[in-house]
Write a structure and sequence with these properties.
The complex is a heterodimer of chains A (100) and B (299). Chain A has three helices and six strands. Chain A has 100 residues and is of the alpha+beta class. The longest helix of chain B has 17 residues. Classes of the chains: A alpha+beta (100), B alpha+beta (299).
């Protein structure tokens, strides 16, 4: 199955509880059931924590832009790339449109 | 059965029905209270009926049979029951101190690694790698350079109790090839032939073994190649440590302990840096390897 493209209007949230803990400059998350271990950098881990509750990609990028002092549009491609990887790993749910 | 022998090994008080000469330096007084671990002999313990070495999961533990050697039952992290085959000889202790002991440690939730560990100036260094990567030979060279042997083959690490990980002393025994013995000009040591390989010797070191724990300052994964020390970090470090330093990984999997084991290894690496240490596969290069390490340690 090909994952649908993630757009700024999509709402994303964690689909699985993964405990991440740091090692050196990375955050490692162990998915004991699946037998996988995931590695995120600091920014990726920040995003992972931020999507504990559903949020639109646009709102996420706006927050990241403010937090890291860059234009939201500039970080959007990187954010969508990470979200796509997380979606492929079945770690997040992606819904079209804003929730509610 | 009478429990006649008492040892303190990996921080555990052990009462054993078998004398364990390999633990002679770790002998201690009988504990006033219940020992942590009992080693018993039971001639009625049945063989698993499985292929040699295969673990049989039971309600309270794991059993395995080694053909022509013995059957072992390891239960609750508290007891190891042994039933040797007739004329089994010294191989009984080989699997008792290796496989059975490691299973007991896993049942107790202890982190153990396949490594040779030496210490100098109160700091310990662990050397890991597959069979044939020269762990013991490097350790032997370090002993000649003034280190003490903390462990060879199997070491208990405590990654939880302190800010820095510590290692527990094991028995003063190295497994060395005759060529390494010759190179190191070690003749005044007691050696016994390896159970499997006639040209490899178990060397009992003179002067006894350290009794105290040591802080573990660094872990090195040994390999062959141009002399080089390279720091490994993050996921790569964790994967490499698990791949190269795990003792009896099939048993960890059979016991369902894989996630807990990975977390323990990560906790260890949060406290102790990991390096890949490559050097040329040539005994004549040993002094150069030592110089690289000693420079690294600023000795």
């Amino acid at each position: 199955m090909v994952a649908p493209n993630i757009s700024p209007q999509c709402t994303v949230s964690q689909a699985k509880k993964i405990d991440f803990s740091d090692l050196d400059e990375e955050y490692l998350g162990l998915d004991a059931d699946a037998g996988y271990i995931y590695s995120l950098n600091a920014t990726g881990f920040h995003i992972w924590e931020r999507i504990a509750e559903p949020i639109t990609v646009a709102a996420l990028c706006a927050e990241l832009g403010a937090a890291f002092n860059i234009a939201p549009a500039a970080c959007e491609p990187d954010v969508i790339e990470l979200l796509t990887a997380l979606q492929t790993a079945e770690l997040i749910t992606v819904q079209d449109g804003a929730v509610g | 059965m009478k429990r006649a022998w008492h040892y303190c090994y990996f921080g555990l008080r052990v009462a054993s029905a078998l004398e364990i000469p390999e633990w002679a330096t770790l002998a201690c007084e009988a504990a006033a209270a219940q020992p942590d671990v009992e080693i018993l002999v039971d001639p009625d313990l049945p063989p698993t009926g499985l292929q040699s070495h295969y673990p049989l999961a039971e309600a309270d533990g794991v059993s395995f049979t080694v053909a022509e050697v013995a059957t072992y039952a390891v239960r609750g992290g508290r007891e190891i029951v042994v039933n040797p085959f007739p004329q089994a000889g010294g191989g009984v202790r080989l699997y008792l101190l290796g496989t059975a002991w490691s299973l007991l440690c896993y049942q107790r939730g202890l982190l153990i690694l396949h490594a040779s560990v030496t210490a100098v100036n109160g700091r310990a260094y662990a050397f890991c790698g597959p069979s044939g990567s020269g762990k013991s030979t490097l350790a032997a060279a370090l002993l000649r350079a003034g280190h003490v042997l903390v462990a060879d083959d199997l070491v208990r690490c405590d990654q939880e109790a302190f800010d820095q990980a510590i290692v527990y002393p094991a028995a003063p025994r190295l497994k060395l090839w005759q060529s390494a013995l010759d190179h190191l000009q070690w003749t005044a040591v007691t050696k016994t032939s390896d159970h499997f390989r006639t040209d490899k010797y178990h060397v009992l070191l003179p002067g006894g073994a350290p009794q105290q724990t040591f802080p573990l300052d660094a872990i090195y994964l040994l390999g062959w190649g141009p002399p080089r020390l390279q720091r490994l970090t993050g996921l790569q470090a964790l994967q490499q440590l698990v791949a190269q330093a795990t003792y009896r990984g099939t048993y960890i999997k059979a016991m369902g302990l894989t996630p807990a084991y990975w977390r323990q290894c990560q906790r260890l690496l949060q406290r102790t840096p990991l390096y890949r240490f490559t050097r040329l596969q040539n005994l004549a290069q040993l002094p150069g390897s030592l110089a690289l390490l000693q420079h690294h340690w600023r000795i």
